[in-house]
Amino acid sequence: MEEKPNKIRVALIAGALIGVVSGVPGLNLVNCCCCAGVVMGGLLATYLYLKEFTPQMPSLESSDALILGIFTGVAGACSVTVVELLIRLLFGGIGDEFAMSFMEQLIGWMEESANVPPEVVDEMRNQVQQSLEGSDSFFGVLSGLFITLILYPIFATLGAMLGYAIFKPKQPQTTQTT
Amino acid sequence: MKRTSISYLIFALLVLLWCILIVTAPFLRASDLNNPISGLLYDGFGTICHQIDGRSFHVAGEKFGVCARCASLYFGFCFSLFLLPLVARSTDRIVPPKAVLVLPASLMLADVAFTLLGVCESTMLTRTLTGGLLGMALPWFIVPPLIDSLDRVQIQIRARRSHLQPGE
Q1: How far is B30 from chain A (nearest CA, A)?
Q2: Which residues of B53-129 form beta strands (DSSP E)?
């Protein structure tokens, strides 16, 4: 029987996607809802991993999804730090300005078309400014990495488990004895 | 106690702790505005939630650690998690239809989309309901494989230990 596919490769791909989604200004708003971007990354990792299975391989087990979720979360936490640093290095202050102008446009659009109350709009502006100020220093980057290294594996694992429950092919039922 | 029960219990306690921390943050801030633990909790939860004041539950005059939708999702998850072993004797034998997950997820997405598109603004009630429903649906899919995998890891660790200590 063949060995199971390599988890690291899939975890790196899904982790890189998490990094892009969570690191690019604007896109990272997805994570405002219970780390949805990271959960989706974990879910995607399980899906991609399942696609690599052949009939000759042993079937996917829940422990595979657990390990895959943890790896994906760690890869995601590292890649989001890299993406944020890259944006900072490449664009410097322009990156912040771009992020701020993008957010201003989004907030303005929400204010006009989505009838979002003014106090909510002000709160959003404050949040964006605070997040940009906090990520300036080396300590800010390091503490960000520390927090994401704890949170991302948790949420990516939950996503991977969800993916396991959704995508796992149904197996014929066997009689169970207790 | 079965191995499954231990894994389940640890996970359930961690989820409960998470929910308690969400509610603890405002109490700590209410007692002392510059409380460092409260600041740490708000900062930590801030990485996974927008924490907009107007969209959050309040207690003691301060907002929860996360917004109303996220709080409902976590509390719903916790509630359903504790309900799981009561409804089914064994936590790893339940496979609900996917509609149980798809329906509340669609409702929540629709609530968000309608707000963003300006069709109608979501209210505290819709946020709480859609978040809570999705939260209550999730454990039925996530917990059984998670407990199963934790059991497998436990078995592997025990096997390695017994391999290292043949006298036991």
Answers
A1: 20
A2: 58-59, 62-63
- Strands B62-63 and B58-59, bridge-based pairing: antiparallel
Query: For the purposes of burial, counting CB atoms within 10 Å of the CB of A168, is it exposed (0-12), middle (13-18) or buried (19 or more)?
Result: middle
CA-nearest residue to A112 within chain B is: B118
Give chain B's domain count.
Answer: 1
Mean pLDDT of chain B: 86
What is the Cα A133 distance to its own chain's centre? 22
> Does position A145 have pLDDT exceeding 90, yes or no?
no
- Is B141 a member of any domain? yes
pLDDT of A176 > 50? The answer is no
| Chain centroid offset of residue A105 CA | 24
Q: Does residue B74 have a pLDDT over 70? A: yes
* Partner residue facing A120 (CB), from B52, B73, B142: B52
Asked whether residue B140 is domain-assigned, the answer is yes
What type of residue sits at position B154? Q
pTM of the predicted structure, to 2 decimals:
0.81
How far apart (Å, rounded) are the C-alpha atoms in residues A42 and A21? Answer: 13
A101, amino acid identity: S
Query: pLDDT grade, residue A85 (50/70/90)?
Result: confident
Asked if residue B10 is part of any domain, the answer here is: yes
DSSP three-state, residue A31:
helix
Identify the domain containing residue B66 by its residue range: 3-153
> How many residues in total does chain A contain?
178
